């Protein structure tokens, strides 16, 4: 899968205007505000031959145990509303600035 993603990214990068468009979108997000994750989701290192770890699949849940847990989770959810603060996730802005700077040069 990763090899296929790299091939597609390489083909897109060689299409006329793609790199300029992505650079202009990055500039727009950094100057006008917005989420960096709207422009990119991550990086692919062409020298990295190691596949990223696969997402963990949760173990199957027993229906009776899940019902019992649901009753206790309602009480916990009412007691703690401070834990629901939204945290910005996505690419590191400092690394993005370095990489986009290298591409624009």
UniProtKB/TrEMBL annotation:
SUPFAM superfamilies for this protein: Sigma2 domain of RNA polymerase sigma factors
InterPro entries, per database record: RNA_pol_sigma_70_non-ess (IPR007631), RNA_pol_sigma_r2 (IPR013325)
GO terms under biological process: DNA-templated transcription initiation
Source species of the chain: uncultured Pseudomonas sp
Chain residue ranges for the region called Disordered: 44-105
A molecular-function term among this protein's GO annotations: DNA binding
Taxonomic lineage from the root: Bacteria, Pseudomonadati, Pseudomonadota, Gammaproteobacteria, Pseudomonadales
Domain RNA polymerase sigma factor 70 non-essential: 15-104
Compositional bias of kind Acidic residues: 70-89
Top-level taxon of origin: Bacteria
Protein name listed in UniProt: RNA polymerase sigma factor
């Amino acid at each position: 899968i990763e090899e296929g993603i790299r091939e597609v990214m390489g083909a897109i990068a060689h299409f006329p205007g793609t790199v300029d468009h992505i650079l202009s979108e990055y500039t727009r997000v950094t100057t006008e505000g917005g989420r960096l994750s709207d422009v990119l989701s991550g990086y692919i290192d062409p020298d990295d031959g190691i596949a990223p770890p696969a997402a963990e699949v949760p173990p199957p849940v027993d229906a009776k145990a899940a019902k019992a847990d649901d009753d206790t989770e309602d009480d916990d959810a009412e007691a703690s509303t401070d834990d629901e603060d939204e945290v910005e996730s996505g690419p590191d802005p400092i690394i993005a600035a370095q990489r986009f700077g290298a591409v624009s040069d």
